[in-house]
Every structure is written in structure tokens, then in C-alpha cells.
Design a protein that fits this description.
With about 260 residues, the chain is mainly alpha-helical. The protein contains ten helices and no strands.
């Protein structure tokens, strides 16, 4: 599909957000379609955002919660990237390791990421270790799958030509395999990043001192829907910003691809 021109995309996106804001205001205000006991109106949301930004809520201000969750996601995503790339390359380039590791991987993969949280809390406690373990475990799965798929779909003629030209070892990996599989690897990285944010919020809901998930959990306990919405939108914004950073990385890694 053809991409819209930048100004058209900006105008359409702005119009979409404005329409959503107007609908929100009408539904919780003049029309009275939604009871503000269950879903806040814009004024309550702004007041809650002011409270957590300039004062404190759930043990810290918004900057503290955002910094805590972002740092955890960054570390967990880094671990997932290393583990996912390594395992994906191994199972796609070695018949022995594919036959040895895939049964274990296929056995573990159907387990929902959130199901690992109770065990992680038992093993690592309420600290960062349990959250990093769950993020790395859950986020590495799409990266393994996409890396292996990317390697398997490299043009065999290209591989044969590289071998004839003498490509071996690290040259084979760095100049043939990784560039050839990079489109699928980037898809895997995007999915892994989305999974990281999902998992960290769920993990913080169950046990955290600070973090966006802590804000959501405390808002639920306090029956404070406006603060819950603040936490939800914060997660959405953080996810969008991290995706934009990944897009910039993709442009650098694959300059030939128009995003």
C-alpha cells in the first residue's frame, strides 16, 4: 500500500485524536452516556495527571514510575534480544541443535507469559530479577521464531554464491546471514518490544515498589478510575515512543527499506 504524504498523515492523525477527545467529553459530560464513577471525564483525568506529576501517588511521582518501568523494559528487552537472536540462529543453522532444542522450545512456548510470574516471584522475589526473567523469557519467543524464519527464507542462490566467494565463520554470519534475515529479525524485535511492555505492567501489578503497573494496581485498590486511565495512557505513550526508537534503528540497519 502507498504511504500517505507526511502532512496528510499528520492531519489525519490529529483529526482522529481530536474526534476521540470530543467523543470522550460528550460521553462523560453533556450526553451522560457513561457514568463517571466507572470511567473518568477529561477534567478528572487532567487533575489525576497533575497530582501524580507534581505531587505523588503509589509511592512516587510520574517520573519515578516511568523511569523504573522503562529501565526494567530496556534491560529485559536487551536480554531477550541476545537470547532470541542466539537461539534463532542456532536452530536455523544447525540440524543437531534444531532437533535438540525445538522440542523444548515448542513445549515451553504455549505457556502464557503471565503464567510464569508466580514462579518467578518464588524464585527471585519481588525485586527486579523476577521481572527481568519474565520479560526475557516472554519477549525472546517471537524473536526466536522470526530469526529462524528469516534465515530459512534467505535466497539459496545467494548463500551458494557467498560460499563460492569464500565466506566463512564470522564473515558468513555478519555479511550474509544477518543482513539476509534482518527484515524478519526487525519484525521479531517489534513483537518482542510489545511483549516487554505487556509483561512488565502485569508483573508490576503483582508486586512492585514503583512502576506504571504499581500505579494501576494502587488505582484499582483505591477505586480511582482517573488514575487507572493515567497509568494506561502512560503505558501507551511509552510503548509508542519505544516503537519510534526501534523504527529509527530499522532505518539505520536497513536504509534500503522505506518505512
Amino acid at each position: 500500500m502507498r504511504r500517505s504524504r507526511p502532512w496528510v498523515l499528520w492531519a489525519t492523525s490529529t483529526l482522529s485524536l481530536l474526534a476521540l477527545l470530543v467523543l470522550w467529553w460528550v460521553a462523560t459530560g453533556p450526553a451522560g452516556w457513561v457514568d463517571t464513577v466507572y470511567f473518568p471525564d477529561p477534567a478528572s483525568f487532567v487533575e489525576s495527571l497533575r497530582q501524580i506529576t507534581f505531587e505523588s501517588y503509589a509511592g512516587g511521582d510520574l517520573a519515578k514510575h516511568v523511569a523504573t518501568s522503562t529501565w526494567l523494559v530496556a534491560r529485559g528487552f536487551a536480554l531477550a534480544t541476545v537470547a532470541g537472536l542466539a537461539l534463532g540462529l542456532v536452530v536455523s543453522m544447525s540440524a543437531f541443535w534444531r532437533d535438540f532444542l525445538l522440542p523444548i522450545f515448542n513445549f515451553v512456548r504455549p505457556v502464557p507469559p503471565l503464567a510464569w510470574i508466580p514462579l518467578a516471584l518464588l524464585w527471585f522475589g519481588l525485586g527486579d530479577g523476577s521481572k527481568l526473567f519474565v520479560i526475557a523469557l516472554a519477549s525472546s519467543v517471537p524473536l526466536v521464531i522470526n530469526t529462524a524464519t528469516g534465515v530459512e527464507r534467505i535466497d539459496r542462490t545467494l548463500l551458494a554464491a557467498a560460499r563460492v566467494s569464500g565466506a566463512r565463520g564470522w564473515m558468513w554470519l555478519g555479511h550474509v546471514i544477518l543482513p539476509g534475515a534482518m527484515p524478519h529479525i526487525m519484525i521479531g524485535l517489534r513483537l518482542a518490544l510489545q511483549t516487554s511492555w505487556t509483561v512488565i505492567v502485569a508483573a508490576e501489578l503483582l508486586g512492585a515498589i514503583w512502576g506504571v503497573g504499581k500505579v494501576l494496581s494502587t488505582g484499582k485498590d483505591d477505586v480511582y478510575p482517573a488514575m487507572i486511565l493515567v497509568g494506561m495512557i502512560t503505558v501507551a505513550v511509552l510503548g509508542m515512543l519505544s516503537s519510534l526508537l526501534l523504527e529509527r534503528l530499522e532505518k539505520r540497519v536497513m536504509p534500503w527499506k522505506k518505512l
